[in-house]
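stage 2 :: seqdesign
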């Protein structure tokens, strides 16, 4: 999900289903979108994570799980995904 983009275009942060999906254990992740229209920094993904953590009161552990979900959802090979898991475990 791209909460910054969603919020500015059609869905307020407080109505976004991301925190509910995450609390229910769904495999959700954060992403960027509309980089020239939405984002204010050069670190687009860090901006998404920072704002999501602040608005939805996500802990460091929550953010790590969301980042891990991104790796699982990625198109990287299984071998690389395992290496990432071992490196950050």
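stage 2 :: out
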């Amino acid at each position: 999900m791209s909460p910054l983009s969603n919020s500015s275009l059609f869905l307020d942060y407080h109505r976004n289903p991301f925190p509910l999906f995450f609390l229910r254990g769904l495999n959700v992740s954060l992403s960027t979108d509309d980089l020239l229209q939405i984002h204010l920094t050069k670190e687009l993904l860090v901006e998404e994570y920072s704002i999501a953590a602040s608005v939805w009161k996500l802990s460091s552990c929550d953010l790590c799980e969301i980042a891990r979900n991104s790796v699982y959802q990625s198109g990287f090979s299984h071998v690389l995904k395992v290496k990432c898991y071992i490196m950050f475990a």
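stage 3 :: structure notes
- The mean pLDDT is 81.
- The longest helix spans residues 60-73.
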